[in-house]
Amino acid sequence: MNESKKEIHVIPELCNGCRLCEMRCSFIQGNEFDPLLSNISIERNNYEGVDVPHINCDFTDCSCDKPECVEVCPTGSIFYCTESKARERKQELKEKQRLQPIFKVIAPWKWPYQSWKKWPYMDKRGESSE
Amino acid sequence: MNDDLFGWAGNILKVNLSNKSVKTEKMPKRVLQKFIGGRGVNIKLLYDDISPDTDPLGPNNTLIFSTGPLSGTPIGMGRTSITAKSPKGCIAEGGFGGHFAPELKYAGYDHVLVKGKSKEPVYLWINGEDVELRDATNLWGKTTWETDKMIKNELGRTDVQMAYVGPAAENDVHTCPIISNLHHSGGRNGVGRIMASKQLKAVAVKGYQGVQIARPELFEKTYQEILESIDIASACDPWIPLYALWGSVGDVRLYNFTGQIHSLNAQQLNFEEMKDKANGERFLEKYVKKGRASFACPWPACGKFFEIQEGDFAGTVGQNLWSGDLMVFTALVGSKSLEAAMKARTICNQYGLDLYHVAYSIAWAMECRQKGILNKSDTDNIDLRFGNTNAMLDMIEKIALREGFGDLLARGTRKASEIVGKGSEDFSMTIKGLELESLTQRNTYQYALGLATGESGPDHTKWLPPVPINPVLSSKKLLKEKLDIDLDKLLLDIDLHQAAETRNPEGKGKLMKWLGDTRAVIEALPTCAFIVKGKLSLDFTIWTRILQATTGEDFDYETVLKCGERIINTERAFIAREGFTREDDTIPRRMLEDPVPEMNVEPIKQEDMDKMLEDYYAARDWNTKTGIPKRRKLNELELGDIAKDLRKNRVI
């Protein structure tokens, strides 16, 4: 296994099923909001409150170090990193959840939240046509 | 999609249940430009579609589901508005979040208008352009949760979004809402009861097309501006982190300390047990399993999935516990159990009951018991005393099924009190026949005015400001310095500081007009009222820009505010045509007569209430004696057809 290879990792227990990632991906693909355009989709189960992100992406569309679906995720349920870093994060989450219930609903690495000021995609496309 | 429209789908689906016809029509662009969408277009459609003598539970009432131009975009937040003529004669309008509205938009519809009445139970299956009415005989009598499962099984798919009614609505209970995706409830002035009266059990929807944006760059820029305003780290409003992570249930302990809770049917304004047990903190620590969000909400956990794993209520699951739910199922009925409140909420969603109706009617019965008006044998030997948790839970099921004493409470608190009499009418906590929603009035005059003047009965979601108002947001100077908000440019001629004073009747009328107009815009776009905080609650130029960007239409700030005012005036004209006047804009007698010495709270003086009402009508340029829009005002808002109609019906 290539230890330096980065991938999108998922912690379904943190996913709140909002589908912001779907919306973001769709907008990048086609300047419109259509779940069918998105490379990521959320399977929601309302009976058990279970939400599972399914990712089907080769990273060619937002080819940078910060996939936008990951950037917009409000809870930190999906993240882009190496396998070993992902293991660290899962461990970190477990430890912090024991100390502070807030981490049931948001990942420590999203707290106290990102600022929305810089999205890579915005920089890439600029604001030329306005 | 309609080729020359962006944001809107441009289509309205018209369903007639009497002859089982289904047809798609183009939405007139003129209506969209004047009423935007959602709640706005709904009231226009309803006004034009029914006449004042329409029986709310007959085939001629019109039930309208809606999306708006922002539905299906990430800022639409899944809000659906549903409108009909209420069984009380006023407007039944309300909404839920979740994921229903975006799916309806992806199916290609802005509105679904349901008329007529089916002979046998049916459900509506909107599979993109393929729409069919299917037999629902086997679903009749089933709970909403059973219905959800059975329809998904029948369709053989789990990716549909649904709205349905429960057994309570089928049993014609007072003010049943519609439930969506198990956990979302909306339209508490009886839209579910109307849906059931048409024998329409459910609507299931799946869409296959996207929402086109007219100006993607402007959308992106404005969307980021919105996100920054409600970001946990950068927001200026201290309520934002609380709502974003804990949801409104996090407020409850604070409300308790400040006497903002209806306790023991509003005889008291705080409740001892809130401090340690029945509060949001304990809910979050002990029972929250994970966050659960409405469509594309940027907040991690305003909604939450909960599960009780041990004790008397083990096995109870559900989603979201808003502050009002917790307050009415504990303090209002004197119950000390947080777990029972969670259970009560889930039962209400399963039976399709309005939890405020249920809780206030039980609290009323408990006060009857306390005062010796009812005794145990009158209530099926259920010991309906304040504090009896099990009695409360038993009663909820009896109301849903109209069994025994439950049949009386199923008629609503006002009706029940008229039947029982003996002075019990004096503590029926209703306005326009609809129960309150746990908001106190005697210590927050703005609430008294807002609840009194609602066109669909007491509904705080149509005007509630961020509370308590952030000091920065009440100073003209600080607003300019800190947030670059110029009140003069926003045409906001309001003394915000005075308006924020909780027990001063001055300044409330003008503020209420502003709140009503702007929140009508919010529900027409639609977006979630919870995020209308901080800068977003005052600077509506941002909302104007996102509407421009999405639709590409020529909206400017003033035209958008006018749309809001037009929506409120159409709603007011609708209830005026139904015979509602100033006399109906009132608050429960207790608020005007009973002090709460324990919290040093006096009743609201009638003269103060009158002053607030008159200031409000004057701010709206309505007739201050009747509370009905003047012809001049309606014409100014391009509602000349409505002015003519009101004249024809001898209302003005």
Task: Give the helices and strands, then pairings.
The complex is a heterodimer of chains A (130) and B (652).
Chain A: E1 6-10, H1 20-30, E2 32-33, E3 40-45, E4 50-55, H2 68-72, E5 78-82, H3 83-99, H4 120-125
Antiparallel strand pairs in A: 1-5, 3-4
Chain B: E1 11-16, E2 21-26, H1 29-35, H2 38-49, E3 63-66, E4 80-85, E5 91-96, H3 100-106, E6 111-115, E7 122-127, E8 130-135, H4 144-155, E9 161-164, H5 167-170, E10 178-180, E11 184-186, H6 191-197, E12 200-206, E13 211-212, H7 216-229, H8 239-245, H9 252-257, H10 280-286, E14 288-291, E15 304-307, E16 317-319, H11 323-329, H12 338-351, H13 355-370, H14 389-401, H15 405-409, H16 413-420, E17 430-431, E18 434-435, H17 445-453, H18 476-483, H19 496-500, H20 508-524, H21 541-551, H22 557-577, H23 589-593, H24 606-620, H25 631-636, H26 640-648
Parallel strand pairs in B: 1-6, 7-12
Antiparallel strand pairs in B: 1-2, 3-4, 3-6, 4-5, 7-8, 9-10, 9-12, 10-11, 14-15, 15-16, 17-18
Helix pairs in contact in B: 1-2, 2-20, 2-22, 7-21, 11-12, 11-13, 12-14, 17-24, 20-22, 20-24
